[in-house]
Structure formats: C-alpha cells, structure tokens
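Recap quiz, item 2
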Amino acid sequence: MKTTDIARYALGSLNGARSRTALMLLAMSIGVASVLVLTSLGEAARRYVSGEFASLGTNLVIVLPGRTETAGGEPSMLIGDTPRALTLGDARALLRSSVIRRVAPLNIGSAPVSYGGLERDIPIWGSTAELLEIRHWRMGLGRFLPKAEWDRASPVCVLGQKVRKELFGNQPVLGEWVRIGDRRFRVIGILESAGESLGVAVEDMVIVPVASIQRLFNTSSLFRILVEARSREAIPRVIEHITRTIRERHQGEEDITVITQDAVLATFDDILQALTLTVAGIAAISLGVAGILIMNVMLVAVAQRTTEIGLLKALGAPGQQIVNLFLAEAALLSLLGAGLGVVIGLAGNGLIGYFYPDLPMGTPLWAFAAAIGVALGTGLLFSLLPARRAARLDPVQALARR
Amino acid sequence: MITLENIQRIFPVGDQKVHALRDINLHISAGEYLSIMGPSGSGKSTLLNLLGLLDRPDAGHYRLDGQDITPLSDKQQARLRRERIGFVFQFFHLVPRLTAAQNIELPMMLAGQPVDERQRRVQQALKDMGITDRADHRPDQLSGGQRQRVAIARATVMQPGLLLADEPTGNLDRASGKDVVDILETLQQRGITLIIVTHDPTLGERAQRCLHMVDGAIVNDTASP
C-alpha cells in the first residue's frame, strides 16, 4: 500500500468521525500547549534572573576584606583573627594586570543628606568613575563622578531619581549644593532610574568620590573592590592575580574573599533549570493523560469500525497493514493536535507576556521540538494497543454483524 | 482448482464442542458454478469462510490451484485472498464514507497498484456493472441492487479466479436480486469459479452443482449421485 494512500485513507476516516477527531485534537493540543506555556514560564524565570545578574555587571569579580573559612582547629584560631582592611592602595595595585579591564573601589555608609529645609538619611556610595561602567548604570542628567585621581576628595555628588525628587521636587538640580553629614557637595548628575537590581535601590542613593566618603566617615578602609575581567574566560586568572597581589601587599596573608557572580549565577541557573524541567514534567503528565484519552477513543473507534476492518482483511489486507492504517491516523491526529497546541501555547505565552511585561517570555526551540515529539510519541504509543487489537480481529466474526 | 481433504472445523461453545464441519472432502474444478444449501447452522457459511481463507480448518488439507494453503502464514493467505478470491456479502459491506468508485478501488489500493491503472480499472468495472453514473455516490445514496453491484465490482476488480457469494440476494428485492444473479452468472460464464451460499432453493437450483449440508456434513452432492 502506498504512503499517500495510507495518509488519504487515514484522513478520510478521521474526517468520517468528526466529533471523535475533534475530541482527540482538543486533548492533544491542550497537552502540547501546556508543555509550551510551562516551559516558557520556567525559561522566562531563568532569563529574568540572568538579566538581573547581568545588570549587576558582566564578568564581575568582587573582593571582600576578611576570609570566610570553615576550617577546623582550635577555637582560638577563630577568635581574634581580625582581617586586614582593604585600602585604596590595594585597589590601585589590582589595576596592573592585562586581564583586568576596570577596578572600582567601593565604600558604603549612611548619612543624613539635606537641601534647603529637607533632610533624609540616605545610603551613600563612595566610588570612582569606573563604577558607572562596571555596574552598567546610565546617567539621566549631567555627568558621573570625574575621572580624577582616586585620592582627590572632590566635593561633588550624583543622586538617584528618588533622592532628587524628595529633596528638590521639580526644581533644577544640577549645580546645587547639598549637605551630606558635615560636608557640602555639588550635584553634578542624576542617575537614570534602573529599578531595583538585586536588592540595590539605584533610585535611593547618593554617590560621591571614594576619597570624599573616606573623609566623611573618617576611615581609610574599603567596603569592597569591584573588578571587571576582560572576558569570561579570564576570570580564573583574574582571581589568581587578585589573591597573589593582595597576599604580597598583606605580608603573605590571604585575608580576602573573592566572589564571582558567575558562581552565583551558575547556582541560580541550575536551580531554575531544575524548575523548568519539573514544570515541563508536570506538563508532560497532561500529555500522558491526552495519550490515554486517545487510546480510549481509538479503542472505541476500533469497536465501531469492526466491519470495516473485517472487510479490509477479506479484501486481502494483512494485519500489519491494518496496524499501519491506525497508526497513520494516530500520527496525523498527533501532528494536527501538536500544531493546534503550538498555536494555543504561543497565544497563552503572548497573553502572559501582555499581563506580566517584566517576564521575558520566549519559548526555547527545544520546547517546540519536545512538545511535538512527545505528542507524536504518546499518540503512536497509545494507539499501538488499539491498532494491534484491530489487526487481530477475526474477520469472520467482524463480518457476521451487519 | 479446489481440493478439500478431511476438513474438520470445531468451535468450542461453552463446555461443549460443536462440529461445524465434519470430515469434508470436496473437489471443485475451475469455472464451476456451485451452490451450497442447507438449514441455519449446517456449516455452509463456515465452509465458505474456509474456502475464502477467512478461517482455518482444525484438521485436514485445503489445496488451492494445487498449492496446500493450510501451512501458509497470515500474510501469505492475505495475499492469496487479495489476488485470487473475491467476496460478495449479504450486507454488501461497503465502506460508508467512501464513494462507489473508491469502494471498488479499495482492493487495488491495498495491493499498492499505480493510480492510473486503478482509475482505468475502476472505470471499466463501473461500466461493466452499468453504474458509471453512480461513481461518486456514497453507499447510502445507492439502492440495494446498486450497492451489491458495487460490491461485485469490488470483488472482481482484481480479476480473481474464485468468487464467493454469501446470500448475495438475501437483502434484495426480487427484481434487483435477479439482476445480481444475472451479473454473477455472466461472470461465471466468462470463466470465474462461482460458489454461492444460499437459503433460497430457486437460486440454489440454478447452479450446475448443488451441495446440501446438514450438521456440518455434505449429505447430497449433485455432481456425485
């Protein structure tokens, strides 16, 4: 029997029992659509988190003073082990490497900021011009900290959008002087609102040169040093360079902790990957249910078409041919159902994207392939039993009925 | 053409075993016109199914054209059915969703013949049966006589040597029944071997050779008095 004839015959019998066909298409398409929507959701969550991390800065390595160790030994070793502070000199020393693109020292504190009669306690960040590029922030107005010597405590500051609104309202702001703690700073720029990036409210902060904040809080140490590697591949060498440089400067003590966002990101990635797979598994169950429905309806179809099957046998169709005919029907159904399901799934994704614009909805290509593959697989698998049953029908009994 | 030797067919019914066919010995030559008559349950339909390879004997040998077909596999038997045997049923057994032409085409489609050859032979068969104008009608749009003609066209389109008819007029009125019998007899005169199972004595006695069956055995065969 020719393939085109098999397809045409299967199509004919599907067309001959429309309500049955519609029911199976519905089941199959719901299964496929749920696979698509749920995997897309998982994928969207993953992308959302990755995006959050990317907004932190790319190829970022963070250096913290002190070393967190879980080492055994005497308790006395844990006590009294004060870490040596990181200094601007340490940060500057890190710059001498070809694998490091940018270094930004960072100090954070909180101080009252006042303008006119208004005063608020606001987080103060002390850093250098490099911070803007490392953190991928953008200026809304004016300019960022000047690219000057790190030691120069220029009396300038950059405000977040919220700080500006609360202190200045709608008044012009550039060039105005605000008081932070006991010092006066001139406003030279406003950050563009970037929402929240992993707990840091960009809108609610004031940035001043690192030397200024050190004088403000009367300290010479740094809260941390942000380092941007030249490439993702260079990160291990950057870490090695950092530990070696700091050890040399700290008399052989390796008293810092180096965090790469990659490590954090990879962990999140693993968790979310597992989440996506779990969700896809749940969706696969609905496909399985669709498969069982298909089997059920197919069995009914075999019962209804007993005479036809008997006739085909009398006309000389061997059992295998009858199996093929029924499997062809199942394959056609599955493909049509998968097509329909993809349309429904994409529509669902569009709807979710419309109501939750923050979620970067997008269906990974593998989800399409998996959904269609699983649809075809379950369709064929669950039709095997009915098809076999049809092929084993006794033609004499099948034809005895009218 | 057909030789049956000591054919037995036993159906288990509950605890008991029913002998549908007891020790049947029969020889049918090519081109014969044979009718099988007998009361209900006499085994005549079982014999016909067995001749048509729809059923297998429990014992004995069946030779078709000199070939012992009892040991053949299902697939080989299906091929023999397709190529050498045509069936005509009391209830026509046309596929309801297919047109007359598609129903006639069915055995050739199963055999995987090329499309243009199929079309040509379907047209010829429709013409032979005088139902060319009904080619695109579905079975429910045809009269009983027309349906049976489509069924005969389907049974003969592969040009088999053996045509088996089970009560071919049982579901038809007198006039269309007569038409159908005429068509079958014309086919037989052109050389096909025709075997008819019937209740109807007037139809049965038209055959050159009549078998009478009772309780699974042939009690009278007009060819061997």
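Chain A has two domains: 3-53+266-400, 84-254.
Residues 70-81 of chain A have pLDDT under 50 and may be disordered.
End of item.
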